[in-house]
Design a protein that fits this description.
heterodimer; A: about 280 residues; alpha+beta; Uridine Diphospho-n-acetylenolpyruvylglucosamine Reductase, domain 3; Enolase-like, domain 1; 5-stranded antiparallel beta sheet; 15 strands; about 25% strand; B: alpha+beta; Aldehyde Oxidoreductase, domain 3; Aldehyde Oxidoreductase, domain 4; 3 domains; 7-stranded mixed beta sheet; 5-stranded mixed beta sheet; 28 strands; globular; binds flavin-adenine dinucleotide
Chain lengths: ~280, ~750
């Protein structure tokens, strides 16, 4: 289908972008890579009257470190997240998750900020952000505020972003010495995750000291598998199998055209075991 | 041979790669309007009211057309069954049925007007499954007996229920003997999903109707049948209807027969101006699809490994309109038999109306539906008998000349040789360890459709040759192969031969582009036309220059007689005509040839996730003579990838109300390059035994029969029995869980 008519604005400062959003209210939408928004517009699931394109804000694009923190601009593309040496070095989980997204074309257009703001429960980067305890920096008319990833995702396609706010930056604390792994099963190559698991593990002499596990597509938002994490505090690596069985606790996967809920529950456990094993071994 | 038999590059390669090639959606006519359609959002309902006033007020709208505007016509169409109104008349029978059409100056205006149309439906209970549709108490999707369409075979017999067409074979070669305790039996139920052909390019039509003449440019595979149908529908003689065809961006059956042309012409008639109608993917998916199916099969062998009997019942869901459903049903029934020496066979295949979108042709139809079922039963019998699966097949396979189904052409290929070639390339051997498996399968499918193909080959003043043949270049390389055939006969370099796009106004008749017939049947017409031109050239040389007919020949664009020679263009414009008609001489036995469906596969199954990895796919292209070996291999590879989709994950999913759920590119996924089997091999077999030019026979569809079956058998060999496709991870995991 053809999207409904809209006005188009391409501001060059974050302030102008925020001001434009504040003025237009609920009628405006931010345009980043467009790879989630355009399908929404074409299917007429939304009909905003104004698109505010962030393409003219190079200041929102790129990756740097700030002490022990990796700082990624919201307009950084998936390809850049997957390939930037600083990301691969400081947050390999994020790079690995980004590399599983769609296909090459999608990874060169889609952005980190767009993926988080879109909050698709099947999205890979929201899960990685939650597993890494990332912090999201939001800019609004009243200035900036920082929201932990775990609080950012509220429901299907719903976040704490206000209509007049922009996601400008993602801050990821470095986890030196931790192992990590992102594992995804999809029905066809290049499709969204049926289920995916992000695992981050700290080890000491064959013992897991702490673990963080987050699940993709196992509920309306990324799910932290807290029962698994609890079962893994201070236990030997061979406790992973038993711990992974807790991966279904607190989840509410959907049955849809891709898979049934009971298959998803099963897969969460299998992938948790495999991802944790890989993370603990790496 | 200089041209035929070589992997020459496509003459149309450059145009396609550079974007110069013109496709349907690229076309425009001066003064052209844009059409958008209002489609039903419910699967079955009476239309209570249709309010068009607001739509007509939208600026730029020229007309809004509904069934009420077609009162002067008999608006029912369908080549096999005339069951389908151009625009819904009082009733909608599937979600997606066309209710109204708007023509406007811009696509946006047309879309805006469609959104303004107000329809009130009185919903009726929909039939969404063949089982429900054939229940004795089921309501009828269509009332009254089916009306045969213009291309309905005279032999077709219709019934009076939702199962309006049946194809049956009940044949006893010898009364099955042997004590019951010496027999082993397998019997199960199976299902195949509705899937979508997914040609890259959806349908596009430009239509013009100026009162007593219709002109259409359409992405159609069968322009001559479309011409005939439009003439019938709009009450004009055939020669007042002209259909031309641009390059086609793939079809796989989705563009066979008539599709979007009737509604486009109806709108053009009303508007009095040319109109353009371009389907989007969500439109194309409710325009045609592959039949979903349920089946029961029972196969019996004796303890010595002799296949004794087979019985099958098949129900194909053709949706709300028949389209090519009866043909699909016949071919499915034939595939159910399988190429073995049965004592007794009984197959009953039904074509069933439901309230789902209409289903028609899709590459390998019938064979794709049934071969995996029959072949997995052969595997199960081998398992029970403790026999090697390949050996069980070998000792029961029909030999060349034996008849599979009474009244059809005897087997015209070396099936045992094809099977051996694939087994060899696959590496048949002792069972693989762990969750790995191998499968191999053999079948045949009727091909060729009809012998009605003609061609004209023209020598132009510039010494170039134009081939006029009504076969469509749809990605398969028909123009390349037809040019190669002409170049071979006339001994010309390929770049001096051009295959001209079809315009029914001046292209000789060709029934259709499908049924793997383009090389074999249309190709034969091209060969004969080229020979006719060759003879004409030589005859002229004899008459004009007094050369000795015994020594005159063509070589490199010259007429050569001893040490004298003339450029062929010195003869002047000259034509040759060819007709494949005699192909059927000596008894009109159908099919024209059997397409051999032999393939093998090796897979690994992950028992924890249910994921299947295709390690190896081997296909046999038993083509008689490969006129372009590279094109043959590409046909098998492309088809193998479609099989991966059909067998492993594709599935059209409908809501409980009958509305298609995965109707976007994001939701309905097809294999991409990342889903390609680790290793693919196409074994070309050239026995020179085809009825086409130089002993060729068609290819391109067989992999759908062979490889779906080989994959199912390989997965079973890896320890997982699946009787419902696709073998999605979810379903495979459930199958594993229910076994343990
Ligand atoms: C074929 C295909 C396959 C895909 N496969 C995957 C996959 O496997 N895994 C996966 O995770 N994703 C997948 N995606 C989605 C892809 O990752 C998108 O790029 C991403 O979800 C959205 O990013 P975007 O930059 O394109 O955002 P847009 O589409 O431009 O925007 C998405 C939403 O976020 C809002 N938004 C964007 N940026 C900001 C911002 N800075 N501040 C506030 N709001 C903002 C927009 O208003 C909109 O509502 C796929 C997409 C396609 C088309």
């Amino acid at each position: 289908m053809i999207p409904a008519a809209f006005d188009y604005l391409r501001p060059t400062t974050v302030e102008d972008a925020v001001a434009a959003l504040a003025e237009a209210g609920e009628e405006a939408k931010v345009l980043a890579g467009g790879h989630s928004l355009l399908p929404v517009l074409r299917l007429r699931l939304a009909a905003p009257t104004l698109l505010v394109d962030l393409g003219g804000l190079p200041q929102l694009r790129g990756v740097r470190t700030d002490g022990d923190t990796l700082v990624l601009g919201a307009m950084t593309t998936h390809a850049e997240v997957a390939g930037a040496p600083v990301v691969v070095d400081a947050a390999p989980l994020l790079a690995q998750a980004a590399a599983t997204i769609g296909d090459r074309q999608v990874r060169h257009r889609g952005t980190l900020g767009g993926s988080l703001a879109h909050a698709d429960p099947a999205g890979d980067l929201p899960t990685a952000a939650v597993a890494l305890d990332a912090e999201l920096v939001l800019a609004g008319p009243a200035g900036r505020r920082t929201v932990p990833a775990r609080e950012f995702f509220v429901d299907y396609f719903t976040t704490t972003l206000r209509p007049d706010e922009l996601l400008v930056e993602v801050r990821v604390p470095a986890l030196p010495g931790w192992g990590s792994h992102y594992l995804k099963v999809n029905r066809t190559a290049q499709a969204w995750a049926t289920v995916a698991v992000a695992a981050v593990v700290e080890r000491e002499n064959g013992t897991i000291t702490q673990a963080r596990v987050a699940l993709t597509n196992m509920g309306p938002t990324p799910v932290r598998a807290v029962a698994v994490e609890r079962a893994l505090a201070g236990v030997p690596v061979d406790a992973i199998e038993a711990a992974a069985a807790h991966a279904v606790e607190g989840t509410s996967p959907a049955s849809d055209t891709t898979a049934s809920a009971d298959y998803r529950r099963h897969l969460a456990q299998v992938l948790a075991r495999r991802a944790l094993t890989a993370a603990a071994g790496s | 041979m200089r041209s035929a038999g070589r992997s020459l590059p496509r003459p149309d390669l450059r145009a396609k790669l550079s974007g110069e090639a013109v496709f349907g959606a690229d076309l425009a006519e001066p003064g052209m309007l844009h059409v958008r359609l209002l489609r039903s959002v419910v699967a079955h309902a009476r239309i209570v009211s249709l309010d068009l006033d607001a739509a007509r007020q939208v600026p730029g709208v020229v007309c809004v057309v509904t069934a009420a505007d077609l009162a002067d016509l008999d608006p029912m169409w369908g080549h096999y069954v005339r069951d389908r109104p151009i625009l819904a008349d009082g009733v909608v029978r599937f979600a997606g049925e066309i209710v109204a059409a708007v023509a406007a100056e811009t696509p946006a205006a047309a879309a805006a007007a469609v959104a303004e149309i107000d329809v009130e439906y009185d919903e009726l209970p929909p039939l969404l499954d063949v089982t429900a549709a054939v229940a004795p108490s089921a309501p009828r999707v269509h009332s009254g007996p089916p009306r045969p369409g213009f291309a309905c075979p005279p032999s077709a017999v219709f019934g009076d229920g939702n199962d309006f067409y049946r194809w049956r074979v009940a044949h006893t070669r010898v009364e099955p003997s042997g004590a019951e305790d010496k027999l082993v039996t397998v019997a199960h139920e199976y299902a195949f999903p509705a899937v979508y052909q997914y040609a890259m390019e959806p349908h596009a039509v430009i239509a013009e109707h100026d009162g007593d003449r219709i002109r259409v440019s359409s992405t159609c595979q069968h322009p001559f049948l479309v011409r005939e149908e439009l003439a019938l529908l709009f009450g004009l003689p055939v020669d007042r209807v002209r259909v031309s065809v641009p390059f086609i961006g793939g079809g796989f059956g989705s563009k066979s027969y008539t599709k979007m042309e009737p509604v486009a012409v109806a709108v053009a008639r009303q508007a009095g101006r040319p109109v353009k109608l371009v389907n989007r993917v969500e439109d194309a998916m409710v325009t045609t699809r592959r039949h979903g199916m349920r089946a029961r099969m029972r196969t019996v062998a004796d303890r010595d490994g002799r296949l004794v009997s087979r019985d099958a019942e098949i129900w194909l869901d053709t949706g709300a309109y028949a389209d090519n459903g009866p043909t699909v049903t016949m071919v499915a029934g034939m595939a159910a038999v399988g190429p073995y020496r049965w004592d007794r066979v009984g197959v009953d295949a039904a074509c069933v109306y439901t309230n789902l979108p209409p289903a028609g042709s899709y590459r390998g139809f019938g064979a794709a539906h049934l071969q995996w079922i029959g072949e997995s039963q052969v595997d199960e019998l081998a398992e029970i008998l403790g026999m090697d699966r390949l050996q069980l097949r070998r000792q029961n396979l029909l030999a060349r000349g034996e008849t599979m189904i009474p009244g059809t052409r005897p087997i015209d290929a070396d099936l045992a040789g094809d099977l051996a070639a694939v087994a060899d390339r696959l590496g048949w051997g002792p069972p693989l360890p762990g969750r790995q498996g191998r499968g191999i399968s053999v079948g045949v499918s009727p091909a060729g459709a009809s012998h009605h193909s003609q061609a004209r080959v023209e020598l132009r003043g510039d010494g170039r040759v134009a081939v006029r043949v009504g076969t469509q270049e749809i990605g398969q390389g028909a123009r390349t192969v037809h040019a190669q055939i002409a170049a071979e006969v006339l001994d010309l370099p390929l770049d001096r031969v051009e295959v001209v796009p079809t315009d029914t106004g001046d292209t000789p008749y060709d029934r259709s582009t499908g049924a793997s017939r383009s090389t074999t049947v249309a190709g034969l017409a091209v060969q004969r036309a080229s020979e006719d031109l060759r003879a004409a050239l030589l005859r002229t040389a004899v008459e004009r220059w007094g050369v000795d007919p015994a020594v005159a020949t063509l070589a490199g664009g010259r007429i050569v007689a001893g040490d004298r020679s003339w450029a062929i263009e010195e003869v002047g414009a000259c034509q040759g005509h060819g007709d494949a008609g005699e192909l059927a001489a000596g008894g009109a036995t159908m099919p024209l040839f059997w397409e051999v469906c032999v393939a093998g596969a090796q897979v690994t199954v992950d028992p924890d996730t249910g994921q299947i990895e295709v390690r190896r796919a081997v296909t046999a292209a038993d083509v008689g003579r490969a006129l372009n070996p590279s094109l043959v291999e590409r046909q098998d590879e492309g088809c193998a990838l479609q099989v991966v989709g059909n067998a492993l994950f594709e599935e059209m999913r409908f809501s409980e109300e009958g509305v298609l759920l995965n109707d976007t590119l994001l939701d309905y996924r097809i294999p991409t390059v990342a889903d390609v089997p680790h290793e693919m091999a196409c074994v070309i077999i050239e026995n020179g035994d085809g009825p086409g030019p130089f002993g060729a026979k068609g290819c391109g569809e067989s992999v759908f029969g062979g490889l779906v079956a080989a994959l199912v058998c390989a997965v079973a060999d890896a320890g997982v029995t699946v009787r419902e496709l696709p073998m999605s991870p979810d379903r495979v995991w459930h199958a594993i869980r229910s076994e343990s």
